[in-house]
């Protein structure tokens, strides 16, 4: 099946240096704020997380951004025993991609990865709905299972083992912090002459450059 006939004409905006500014984190906050306020994007905090495993194979999946920390770290939470956790243990570096289709905007982020603190993990875990906290105990993420019924039995067992609302954080569950050393902003333009601004960290400063589309 060919897809060459599927064409889009981008026409929503532009990205110029005087508006973008010198700090990519401030620009990111502005862009995700626009995405959130548009009402047209179900989960504006959804981001593709790309990792490599211990054999160098690339892997990508969607996760949810839960915080942009004061130091600029992008934070998400997951089962650290799952495939992405194993990948990040082997190579603690990752790339992120945000794609906001109605705005014709993309943000790419690259950086080193560290764990969140136990205190931050516990504070976030406590905000999750009870079913999500039980699910963190029930699922052996990325491991095979016989069928849906078996998964539901595991959930029921975890639910029975943790009655009430006081549910501790599973020892294998926690967060990751991606501190960017490069960020790129993409705005769709007509004729495929898209705007691309790339920021690279230089100590405490950011160096900005325009890339050809």
Key features?
213 residues, Pnp Oxidase, Chain A, nine-stranded antiparallel sheet, 27% helix
In short:
The protein is α+β, with helices and mostly antiparallel strands and 213 residues long. Helices cover 27% and strands 33% of the residues.
Question: Would you write up a description of this structure?
Answer:
By secondary structure, the protein is of the alpha+beta class. The protein has a domain at 17-123 and 178-210: Roll (Pnp Oxidase, Chain A), CATH 2.30.110.10. Helix content is 27%, strand content 33%. Strands 1, 2, 3, 4, 5, 6, 7, 8 and 9 form a 9-stranded antiparallel β-sheet that branches.
CATH architecture of the domain at 17-123 and 178-210: Roll
In CATH terms, the superfamily of the domain at 17-123 and 178-210 is Electron Transport, Fmn-binding Protein, Chain A
- Beta content comes to 25-35%
Alpha carbon gyration radius: 20 Å
Q: Please provide the count of β strands.
A: 9
Structural class: alpha+beta
What pattern of helices and strands is seen along the backbone? HHEEEEHEEHHHEEE
The average pLDDT is 96
The gross shape turns out to be: globular
* CATH fold type of the domain at 17-123 and 178-210: Pnp Oxidase, Chain A
Major sheet: size, sense and barrel closure? 9 strands, antiparallel
């Amino acid at each position: 099946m060919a897809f060459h006939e599927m064409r889009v004409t981008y026409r929503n905006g532009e990205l110029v240096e005087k508006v973008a500014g010198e700090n990519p984190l401030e620009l990111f906050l502005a862009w995700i704020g626009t995405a959130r306020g548009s009402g047209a994007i179900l989960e504006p905090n959804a981001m593709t997380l790309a990792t490599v495993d211990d054999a160098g194979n690339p892997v990508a999946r969607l996760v949810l951004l839960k915080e942009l920390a004061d130091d600029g770290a992008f934070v998400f939470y997951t089962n650290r025993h799952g495939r992405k956790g194993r990948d990040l243990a082997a190579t603690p570096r990752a790339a992120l991609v945000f794609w906001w289709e109605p705005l014709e905007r993309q943000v790419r982020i690259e950086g080193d990865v560290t764990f969140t603190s136990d205190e931050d993990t516990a504070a976030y875990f406590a905000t999750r709905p009870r079913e999500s906290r039980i699910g963190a105990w029930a699922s052996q993420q990325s491991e095979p299972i016989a069928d849906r019924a078996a998964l539901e039995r595991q959930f029921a067992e975890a639910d029975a083992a943790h009655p009430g609302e006081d549910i501790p954080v599973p020892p294998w569950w926690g967060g990751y912090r991606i501190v960017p050393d490069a960020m790129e902003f993409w705005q769709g333009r007509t004729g495929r002459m898209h705007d691309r601004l790339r920021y690279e960290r230089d100590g405490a400063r950011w160096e900005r450059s325009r890339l050809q589309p």
